[in-house]
Structures are given as structure tokens and as C-alpha cells.
């Protein structure tokens, strides 16, 4: 039996639950699909900044009643070296600048608070486009899907293809209960230990009777060795109990500015780590996850049920304004175009194995050819600059434009004669430039019959591959 909803959110973490919460407040019927059952453990350092509470309208005193909410009013930082850490620098603040939370509590709270219908304990294994609607697992139907499943989100993999050479940050962490054991780490002052090359850091963070210890680096190949050295030094220095566990779970994420993922497709939006939005300076991911979830919801509400890719593009421009430009603004392939109602289903994702690492595979239809990357520039006049708090009153005008604001007709009228418009999506931020010269004629190899061209948009970066045969579900 098919269950219908106005929106399907795949992933019940902070990004997905925040998006669902905003959509439900506007009256939409939302289903959240997650392979885990909540509460569940999540590898994460687990601290949030005050703007996260502000934008979600969470009262700190109410949340902290029966849950972990450790105020942070200082940081102790040092640099790791061959003989351990160097001189320490302690920074104090007059009021909390962050709060320590436990993800098992925080994620469950946000998900239950969202008011969405919860479909947990089941992974996304099949996704099919039928008549302008998405059908998930042969039973959940919605006109739009929000991919919020973290770095290994199956929706992100479907939209962008399998990851190849993504510059991931890998981390390992553990959060054991101290049970009264002696610990030198102060609760209000996490300790940070930076690598000499500044490509990673370790941390120790006490949250009441829990201690979070972890290590992350952009160079993931040597992460286990670095983590072992870090833990051995912490034990020897008496910073952590000697009997702390040695086998730690890991996780990965992409930093904004290095992520090659596109966040937009036909009836698809990506949020949080699925879109690669972690802050490059600190690796913080919860705040951009929450904010992007709310931004995605505002974008959908402005479109009033019409979610083709062209109308969703302002969301990508808004992310660029808020978090900075990404490496690439187009997918490796778009999902198959919508088919007329009643037509045989094609372009389905067949049954999947090992979703955490294996890509979602389209069905019998070949993917649509990749389109040239849109030449857009993040507007310099966006109301919310990178690093500023995001609250509903600060949402840029672009999210509230009338439904026809992103149509081709509107853009044609805005294009200056003899020039090409550069725009972030904000009507105040438009410039013109002379039209580019015509591209050179294709080389003979590119005209070869039965070959499809792969190109990044520059004449130097072209290669050929045999035309892909149809994929069978």
C-alpha cells in the first residue's frame, strides 16, 4: 500500500529533523525515513553553538532538564609535537559560547519535536521517479525528497554518483561514561590539540559524567596511527583514565569549499553533511546542518509544490551565499526526467546492498547527460554572511519570492541586451558581461559514433568514454 506525503526526508539527524520541523509548522505532511531506531549513538564531538538553540527556538533550561547541556566558557589549546603537547593557551569568555550535548539525546529530541511521521528502522533501498513523484521503497510517495543522511546519504549518492576522490575529513571518537573515575578535563573548558601541519586536531571534552575524546584529520590515510599516538600521550600525561576503550568508531564528512557535491536535482534537495557543509575552519557540522535544513524548508515553501530542478536552483545559490562556494555546482548526472502519468516506471533504484559504502544504482533507464555547470556567483549582498547567526527574520528575500520568480521567462526578461547575467539569486546582485566567444569545434575523437563526452566545461578537460548500456534493476 502506497503512503503519500508532501515531503520525504531521508535521515533523522539534526538536518533532517530541522527541515521536517519547519515544514510541519507550515502544515505540510512530512515523513522521516531513517535506517536507525532512536535513540542511537552517533560518532560526533557533540557540541553546539547558541545560534543553534536560537534558530530552532529551543529553551536551554527546558532542554537541559534531564538531558546533557554542558555550558562552555573557555578553551585550552596547544600544539602537538614529537614529545606531546606544547605550551597551553587558555581563552575565557564571559558567557557560554557553546554547549556540550550527547547526540543520542539531542537527535532524539529534535526528531520527536519535529512532529513528522517517523518511519525508522528501515534504510532507503529503492527510489523511483513516476509522473513527477518520487516513490521510495515501493511504498512511500512524495513530490520532493530531502537527502539528510549524512556523508554516506543514499540520496546524495543517487544525485551525484559514487564518491571518487572526495577530500574527506575522517575522525574517530569515543564517549564513555566516567562512573566517578578521576579526570583532569574541566567541563566548561574543552582541550584542543592541533597537529603541527594544522590539518587536524584532537580534543578532550567532558560533559558531566561523560568524556568525549576524539581525533580528526584531513589526511585520512594515517588517521589510525595519529589517533593511537594521541591517546597514548593523553594516558601518559594523565589527561584521561588509563582504562579508556581503545577501539573507537569513526565518521567522515566534507568541508564546505572542498565538496564536489551538488545539492539540487529534480525534486531533490541535500542538506547538512549530505551536501558537504561543515565549516572548514573548525569542522563544525551541526550548525550548518540545522541551518541548511531550515533553508531547504523555506525554499520548498516558497515554491508551493512545484519542485523541478530549475525552480530549486535558488537553494544552491543561497547555500553559496551563506556558507561559501562549493567546488562544483552540477551533479554527475541528473535523475531521469519525469515520465507521463501511467507510463511504465523507469529510472528506478534497484535493491541495494551495503548502502553505507555502495552507490545507489539507477534502474533500466540511462541517466540524462550531464549539463554544463551553471555560471553563478554567490552574491556579496546576501543578508546572512558566513559565520553570522541564521534566524527566521534574517532569511534572504530569495526564499520568499513568488512561485514564478525562478522561471526561464523571468530570467530572460532580466538578462541585459548583449550580455549574460551573473546573479546569486538576489535581484539586487546582478551584473552583465560580454557574451563568451563561441567554443572551438569538437575534435574528431569527440565526434566518434557511440562515444559520449565527459567535460568539466573547459576545452582542456575533455575525454571520451563508451556510451553506457542501459542499467538493469
Describe the structure.
The chain has helices at residues 14-25, 50-55, 60-63, 103-114, 154-160, 223-236, 286-303, 309-323, 408-414; strands spanning 3-4, 7-10, 30-34, 47-48, 70-72, 74-81, 84-85, 89-92, 98-100, 117-120, 127-130, 133-136, 140-142, 145-147, 169-174, 191-194, 200-207, 210-217, 250-253, 264-265, 268-270, 420-423, 430-433, 451-455, 462-466. The chain has 473 residues and is α+β, with helices and mostly antiparallel strands. The chain folds into 2 domains: 1-57 and 102-163 and 254-408, FAD/NAD(P)-binding domain (3-Layer(bba) Sandwich), CATH 3.50.50.60; 68-101 and 169-250, D-Amino Acid Oxidase, Chain A, domain 2 (2-Layer Sandwich). The strands form 6 sheets. Strands 6, 7, 8, 15, 16, 17, 18 and 19 form an 8-stranded mixed β-sheet that branches. It has a 6-stranded mixed β-sheet with strand order 10-3-2-14-21-20, with helices on both faces. A 4-stranded mixed β-sheet has the order 1-13-12-11, with no helix packed on it. Helix 1 (14-25) links the parallel strand 2 (7-10) and strand 3 (30-34). The longest helix has 18 residues, at 286-303. It is globular, with a radius of gyration of 23 Å. The two termini are 21 Å apart. Residues 328-473 have low confidence and may be disordered.
Amino acid at each position: 500500500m502506497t503512503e503519500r506525503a508532501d515531503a520525504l526526508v531521508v535521515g533523522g539527524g539534526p538536518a533532517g529533523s530541522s527541515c521536517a520541523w519547519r515544514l510541519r509548522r507550515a502544515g505540510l505532511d512530512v515523513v522521516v525515513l531513517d535506517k536507525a531506531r532512536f535513540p542511537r549513538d552517533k560518532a560526533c564531538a557533540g557540541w553546539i553553538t547558541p545560534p543553534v538553540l536560537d534558530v530552532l527556538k529551543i529553551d536551554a533550561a527546558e532542554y537541559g532538564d534531564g538531558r546533557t547541556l554542558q555550558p562552555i566558557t573557555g578553551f585550552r589549546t596547544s600544539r602537538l609535537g614529537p614529545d606531546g603537547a606544547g605550551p597551553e593557551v587558555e581563552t575565557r569568555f564571559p558567557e557560554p559560547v557553546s554547549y556540550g550535548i550527547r547526540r543520542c539525546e539531542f537527535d532524539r529530541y529534535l526528531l520527536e519535536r519535529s512532529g513528522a511521521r517517523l518511519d525508522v528502522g528501515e534504510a532507503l533501498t529503492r527510489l523511483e521517479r513516476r509522473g513527477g513523484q518520487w516513490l521510495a521503497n515501493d511504498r512511500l510517495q512524495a513530490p520532493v525528497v530531502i537527502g539528510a543522511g549524512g556523508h554516506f546519504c543514499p540520496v546524495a549518492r543517487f544525485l551525484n554518483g559514487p564518491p571518487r576522490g572526495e577530500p574527506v575529513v575522517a575522525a574517530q571518537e569515543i564517549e564513555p561514561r566516567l562512573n566517578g573515575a578521576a579526570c583532569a578535563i574541566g567541563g566548561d573548558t574543552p582541550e584542543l590539540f592541533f597537529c603541527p601541519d594544522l590539518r587536524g586536531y584532537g580534543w578532550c571534552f567532558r560533559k558531566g559524567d561523560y568524556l568525549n575524546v576524539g581525533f580528526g584529520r584531513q589526511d585520512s590515510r594515517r588517521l589510525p596511527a595519529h589517533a593511537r599516538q594521541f591517546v597514548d600521550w593523553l594516558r601518559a600525561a594523565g589527561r584521561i583514565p588509563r582504562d579508556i576503550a581503545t577501539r573507537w568508531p569513526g565518521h567522515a564528512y566534507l568541508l564546505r569549499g572542498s565538496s564536489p557535491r551538488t545539492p539540487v536535482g529534480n525534486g531533490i534537495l541535500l542538506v547538512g553533511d549530505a551536501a558537504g557543509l561543515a565549516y572548514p575552519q573548525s569542522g563544525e557540522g551541526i550548525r550548518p546542518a540545522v541551518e541548511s535544513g531550515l533553508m531547504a524548508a523555506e525554499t520548498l515553501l516558497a515554491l508551493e509544490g512545484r519542485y523541478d530542478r530549475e525552480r530549486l536552483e535558488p537553494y544552491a545559490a543561497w547555500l553559496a551565499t551563506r556558507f561559501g562556494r562549493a567546488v562544483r555546482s552540477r551533479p554527475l548526472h541528473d535523475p531521469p526526467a519525469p515520465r507521463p502519468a501511467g507510463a511504465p516506471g523507469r529510472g528506478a533504484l534497484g535493491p541495494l546492498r551495503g548502502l553505507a559504502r555502495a552507490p545507489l544504482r539507477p534502474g533500466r533507464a540511462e541517466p540524462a547527460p550531464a549539463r554544463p555547470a551553471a555560471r553563478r556567483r554567490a552574491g556579496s549582498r546576501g543578508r546572512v554572511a558566513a559565520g553570522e547567526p541564521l534566524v527566521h527574520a534574517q532569511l534572504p528575500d530569495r526564499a520568499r519570492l513568488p512561485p514564478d520568480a525562478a522561471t526561464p521567462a523571468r530570467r530572460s526578461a532580466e538578462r541585459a541586451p548583449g550580455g549574460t547575467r551573473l546573479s546569486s539569486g538576489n535581484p539586487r546582485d546582478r551584473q552583465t558581461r560580454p557574451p563568451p566567444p563561441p567554443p572551438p569545434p569538437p575534435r574528431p575523437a569527440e565526434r566518434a559514433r557511440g562515444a559520449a563526452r565527459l567535460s568539466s566545461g573547459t576545452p582542456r578537460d575533455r575525454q571520451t568514454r563508451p556510451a553506457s548500456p542501459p542499467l538493469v534493476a
